[in-house]
Amino acid sequence: MKLRGRHLLGLDGMSREDISLILDTAVSFKEVLERPIKKVPPLQGKTIVNLFFEASTRTRISFELAERRLSADVVTFSTAGSSVSKGETLKDTARNIEAMKIDMVVIRHSAPGAAHFLSRVVKANVINAGDGGHEHPTQALLDMLTLREKYATLEKLKVCIVGDIAHSRVARSNIYGLKTMGAEVSVCGPATLIPRDIERLGVRVFHRLEEVVKEVDVINVLRIQLERQESGLFPSLREYHRYFGVTKEKVAKAPKPITIMHPGPINRDVELSADLADSEHSVILQQVTNGVAVRMAALYLLGISN
Amino acid sequence: MKLHLKGGRLVDPVSGRDEALDVLIIDGRIEQLSKSIAADKSIQVVDLKEKVIAPGFIDMHVHLREPGFEHKETIETGCASAAAGGFTAVCCMPNTNPVIDEESVVRYIIGRGKQVCEGVVDVYPIAAATKGRKGEQLAPMAELAEAGAVGFSDDGSPISSSEIMRRAFEYSSMYGRPVIQHAEERTMTHVGLMNEGFVSTRLGMLGIPRVAEEIMVQRDLALLRYIPHARYHVAHISTRGTLECVRAARTEGLQVTCEVTPHHFTLTDEVVSGFDTNTKMNPPLRTQDDIVAMKEGLRDGTIDAIVTDHAPHTVDEKEVEYPAAPFGIVGLETAVGLAFSELVETRYLSLFRLIEKLSTNPRKILSLPQINIQEGELANITLLDPSFEWQVDTSSFKSKSKNSPFHGRRLKGKAVGVLNNGKFLLCE
Predict the structure, then answer these.
(1) Which chain B positions have a beta carbon within 8 Å of A116's beta carbon?
(2) By three-state DSSP, how is residue B117 classified?
(3) What is the pLDDT of residue A81?
(4) What per-residue confidence (pLDDT) applies to A225?
(5) Which one of 1.10.490.160, 2.60.40.10, 2.30.40.10, 2.60.120.260 gives the CATH number of domain B2-52+376-389+407-426?
């Protein structure tokens, strides 16, 4: 089985078969991660460059681990002190690195479409590790793997994404992926952080968590950025927490236990209460574990496509 | 120079003529206009069977980039591009360096225009309305107009201050020159990259809401109502709402005119989906409903002029991630083909009306003399082949820049020649 494309740029338009293939492959890699020796040889001799133009800890480490466990040679590049600060363009940076003979590029960048752009200017396989507010496909894949483990199927699963939907790549990739897999997706947040015409993506829009908890199986809580307050999109963190923070009290009114997810890093007691983050219904650490397995799967499937 | 334009159809909104006529041109002047002119071996014959003779086209909104940004375009390459696209005149915007806010710059540009491409393209500068295009103090409009500026605009920097806009209206009205506004309420758009709507939501791109354009037009119209002897021209309108504001103001009797670009009546924001930076322009590409509105506005006469907003940028400037790319596309060499394909072929406009919007109306807006296609007059003519089918190839552009989203597009209809100031050029 092979993926349809040479790159993993996003889940918008990705087929159900391709998503299932990645998730199924991830399940077998997860088994590898349980072994005492967590290394397999499929990408031996392949060179992968991680281009991180934006701060990231978890995603970068997760990709690096996944790459190393597949026996690839890995170089990671972060913006601080790089040629980018000397005014080099993304295209030149990428072409120069490619001239050093590499096979795959993982890119995190603040510009929507940066991974698409890169895939047009280099010959290597490109994996999008987050492009601005556009997509973060491996995050959504690991979210889906986590939910599939818990619920066996994503079909008809009711998932609500709560928070700053407007600026969130995690929200978009989750919406595309979950909808393709048959889940029922909704979003909840202040009206200023819900992007225009999002209903046309086939999601319901809520502005009250009380209504959300009545009907969903899963809440995926997004990180709220303080800079959104500064640009006038919500009045204060206190008010945000009070009306959109996901807390034990609010979730307690649900007719059945709700699974809590968060892509990290958490602002504890802002968008998500600490007790809920650490509760038995939280799958946040499983998400992190699954992140490595899903990234191994994506890297492997693209690596063998060459 | 002796030319015999033979077998063509003269379509001339100025005189109201639409008939088969031969034209004899000697030394740039129309010597004879008649049903049939006898052949003469000493005279070059241009066979215009199935082709159209129109008054020379003018593009009242281009960026020639000189002085200051000659790596993108020069007056010479810009004029060559205009001529290749069928234009015998262009009006260039003041976002140069230095800005066109003093008479020496106006005189330089006009003078340079006469030196390049053997003067086949007349260059009419549009001067800044405020010093440095900063929106703070009025530019010396009287001096600028006397030097040859045909209108006033801060172009890509909308005049945000209502007070300054009021004074610009008042001051410019003394000289009968329009204030041309790039209508955009900047507090709503400063981080936007594309039209705000379903597609921007899908792509996770920050939006430029349509209402930002409409608010500015409404404010300006309120000011115009207060200073009714001023003249207001709305640059490159892009939304149905803007069109409706202008239409209502016209019905009310206000002296407002407006223009639209070919890309705003051809493409929607859907084309941004591939993150091609040649789809990035300001105002941004809108929706199908807006395209329909633009075509209706052209048909009912609310939209006076078709302009390109020709905005050259180099490949290096455009071949970057989407947010880092500058706004704008080149348009001089695709405008006539797009107008024919999207407006005439689809029967939104007759050929006669199309020529009005590319020649007669912009001249009227800018108080430029109309072109008289009469015996004894200087010939200023664009030759058209309405049924010519061709494919856009940016590598053949005369413009220094190739930033067009229309590369590879098949079009029907093309300008095939221009004649002005005694110079005849075939459009290749």
Answers:
(1) 274-275
(2) helix
(3) 45
(4) 87
(5) 2.30.40.10
Tokens of B304: 């006076």
Q: Does A89 touch chain B (CB under 8 A)?
A: yes
- Cα separation, B357 vs B303, whole angstroms: 8
pLDDT score for A2:
86
pLDDT digits (tens, 9 = 90+) for A137-183: 999 999 999 999 999 999 999 999 999 999 999 999 999 999 999 99
Q: Which residues of B are catalytic?
A: 309
Give the pLDDT of residue A77: 87
Does any CB of chain B come closer than 8 Å to the CB of residue A249? Answer: no
CB contact, 8 Å: B388 with chain A? Answer: no
CA angle B384, B72, B111 (to 5 degrees): 70
**Residues of chain A contacting B208 with CB distance shorter than 8 Å:** none
Give the Å distances, CA to CA, from B323 to A92, B81, B206, B319: 17, 28, 9, 11
| Contact (CB<8Å) A197/B323 | no
- Selecting from A117, A121, A133 the residue whose C-beta is nearest the C-beta of B204 gives A133
* Residue linked to tokens 């978009």: A172
- CA–CA dist B241, B217 (Å, integer): 10
Banded pLDDT at A117 (limits 50, 70, 90): very high
Write down the pLDDT at residue A1. 76
pLDDT in tens, A216-239: 999 999 999 888 888 889 999 999
Q: Is B201 exposed, middle or buried (0-12, 13-18, 19+ CB in 10 A)?
A: buried
Write the single-letter amino acid at A298. A
Partners of residue A135 in chain B, C-beta under 8 Å: 204
Where chain B has pLDDT below 70, the residues are: none
CA of A167 to nearest chain B CA: how many angstroms apart?
7
CB B278 within 8 A of CB B318: yes
pLDDT of res. A84: 58
Q: Does residue A83 have a pLDDT over 90?
A: no
Euclidean distance between CA atoms B184 and B188, whole angstroms: 8
- Bridge partners (DSSP) of residue B305 are B259
Quote the ipTM score.
0.95
Which CATH number is correct for B57-365, 3.40.50.170, 3.40.190.10, 3.20.20.140, 3.40.50.1460? 3.20.20.140
Which sequence spans correspond to the domains of chain B? 2-52+376-389+407-426, 57-365
- A-B CB pairs within 8 A amount to 69
pTM of the entire predicted model: 0.95
**CB-based contact A133:B204 (threshold 8 Å):** yes
Q: Is the Cβ of A61 closer than 8 Å to some Cβ of chain B?
A: no
